[in-house]
Specification:
- By secondary structure, the protein is an alpha/beta fold.
- It has a single domain, classed as Alanine racemase (TIM Barrel).
- It contains nine helices and eight strands.
- The chain has an eight-stranded parallel sheet with strand order 7-6-5-4-3-2-1-8.
Length: about 220
């Protein structure tokens, strides 16, 4: 059995205080989330709308939920009332739908734009020019706050490949921030970077990640 509390304590002692850990609780039961919660963890990541809806309804209100999976527009009502951050906005169509929901519910939804940085075609996300097109027109999405970027590196043991993937994400963010006046619809504090998971989070932290998404290291292999 995984020592959830011990894993969280080790991460807290290892990581810089400015790096936020999202405990990826997808596919793990509410009891495991509560074990992490009782160990002091407050930010959790889910990738399935129904699972987020159920867990958010039964677990403590001070949990900060991040949605980290592919989100279909017909599932927004299961996610947006609960998520403090949607990390995985991977299309203009989805961004528009989230913005419309925010406007209709008198809320500004915090989001990250997901960049496709991996070699696997199965991963979601914008390519660099697509993100630039979105941020150039950020004011067209009044119901969202585009707070930064998210990405997932190629799943490989080759550190050079991982670093190359991450560097594209960092470079794009840095380029936008350096020329922020060209993007009047972005918030002044734009620039959050979410990248790095159990197998590569140390590299991500070294390269400047603000958020790392850790699942297996905390919860062990998924239970269903």
């Amino acid at each position: 059995m995984t020592d959830i509390a011990g894993a969280i304590a080790r991460l807290k002692s290892e990581l810089p205080s400015n790096v936020k850990v999202v405990a990826v609780s997808k596919f793990h039961p509410a009891e495991a989330v509560m074990e992490a919660y009782n160990a002091g963890q407050r930010v959790f990541g889910e990738s399935r709308p129904q699972e987020l809806h159920v867990k958010a309804s039964m677990l403590p209100d001070d949990i900060s939920w991040h949605f980290i999976g592919h989100l279909q527009t017909n599932k927004l009502k299961m996610v947006l009332p609960y998520a403090d951050l949607v990390e995985s906005v991977d299309s203009g169509h989805l961004l528009e739908a989230i913005s419309d929901w925010g406007v209709s519910h008198d809320r500004t939804v915090d989001v990250l734009l997901e960049m496709h940085i991996a070699s696997e075609d199965t991963k979601q996300g914008f390519f660099g020019e697509g993100i630039l097109q979105i941020v150039r027109n950020a004011s067209a999405y009044p119901g969202v706050r585009i707070s930064g970027l998210m990405g997932m590196a190629t799943f490989t043991d080759d550190e050079a490949v991982i670093r190359n993937d991450f560097s594209r994400l960092v470079s794009l963010r840095d380029g936008i921030k350096a020329d922020i006046e060209r993007y009047p619809g972005l918030p002044a504090d734009f620039g959050i970077l979410s990248f790095g998971m159990t197998h590569d989070y140390r590299i991500a932290v070294e390269m400047g990640a603000d958020i790392v998404r850790i699942g297996t290291l905390i919860f062990g292999e998924r239970t269903y």
